[in-house]
């Protein structure tokens, strides 16, 4: 393994710090950022008002009236260094979602291409997608929209040169060892391998954005018809089941 | 419950408040008013303890009426306003009676004007805020014929007030602090950036504002950056090397490198720069940026100190004879100053 990433505590506005473990999406830095986020959520520093994990960094917003900026920066740097030094694995998930999805064909028009690039049959590709230990790495770009990973190294597929102008809400797309599940119809340079009835953002649902960074994700393959009928569920969860782990 | 009716909507009218902070981890940006200071000034004019939900008017106003006597505050970008044809001062509060015709017309400067009823708009809240978030489909722009619930004015008899405000409606200098990615840019690029005069571009909305210049500002370290958290005020360098300033409805995460962040105190000036306005950036040290921080209570206290009673020019009062000028205890106070 490479050297332990050097974490940095950087100003992010007048009331925030970004604790960054790497500039690029290095898996070890991702794990460290997840450990840092978990620690900040469970052992929250005085004066912190918000913790938001990104891929290899964590944003902490604080109330400048309640805490000295330099003291906070020092304590965050010490925490980050301790985490980076022990190069931890990603923390265990506290919850697990099992999400039904229809793979291939009209629901995953790029599955054949993806399998081809990996030298796998479509069924083998589906098996890898469903059997890999996946987690929500971060949520962003749209409310509730997850970045899920990491897929095996072979899945380090580049984005497509040409945008797919339209994938439907619920599309499961892959690139760079990650999976995105779109909450709304979107254009994307990622390859669509499946579709689910899970809606990542439903304003009137409680909660509107049910996924959290760190949640474990497991896809359960279903037929297109089953996925369609699960999509009509009023809760917009598409038949997804949430378990609390521990 | 008092009602405020939109008789005509000329600009893009949306209900806005201070937004819904605290949901960045779920991919939801704070949203809320583009010019947050305008809501604080409205609260100061109306004697409210905290900012109220208001109508944000982008580009132009509209025509309004109320169902019960209520004071309103007019803040943000100055617009031509009349009540039953008589001109109303901007940056001020005024009593509006039922059946009176409140018209808010063209912008005189800036982009976003605000109409705040003294009881605040009481439209349905979502995640603790009434702010419309157009980008993600929370609420929608107001249209003619809509009636919005408002809280009752706690003191309709209170005198009209006027607030002294910094002219932030013509562009100018914006103070910037370094951000997590400033070090990705060469010193020469940063120097050039801070020496350049930018023009507010034609493309801008509640998500962000494009700036134009002849020069381009790029970094060799942009490729393959992991996306991280972004927020209002961030100066994001898009692929073409021109800054795109993130505003209240921006996404929460982005992959473009950012030169720095406009400090919150100067973001209203950015929001109010109309297309064509000239803008320059001034780089602050971290200490200077940190010491510019004011919380909402401080800002409101400071704004209240800039308010005074409005002395109306009798020549501008269309219905002067209807005022009880002698011996009055209510209407007569409009002519006093404190």
Automatic annotation (TrEMBL), chain A:
Protein name: Allophanate hydrolase subunit 1
Annotated ranges, domain Carboxyltransferase: 7-211
Molecular function terms, GO-annotated: hydrolase activity
UniProt KW keywords: ATP-binding, Hydrolase, Nucleotide-binding
Gene3D superfamilies for this protein: 3.30.1360.40, Cyclophilin-like
Family matches, as InterPro entries: CT_C_D (IPR003833), Cyclophilin-like_dom_sf (IPR029000), PxpB (IPR010016)
UniProt key word Nucleotide-binding: yes
Top-level lineage group: Bacteria
Database matches in PANTHER family: 5-OXOPROLINASE SUBUNIT B (PTHR34698)
One Pfam family cited in the UniProt record for this chain: CT_C_D
SUPFAM superfamilies given in the database record: Cyclophilin-like, PH0987 N-terminal domain-like
Automatic annotation (TrEMBL), chain B:
Keywords annotated in UniProt: ATP-binding, Hydrolase, Nucleotide-binding
UniProt keyword annotation of Transcription present: no
Pfam families: CT_A_B
Residues of the Carboxyltransferase domain: 25-299
Entries under InterPro entries matching the protein: CT_A_B, Cyclophilin-like_dom_sf, PxpC
Keyword presence, Repeat: no
Designated name of the protein: Urea amidolyase
Organism: Paracoccus maritimus
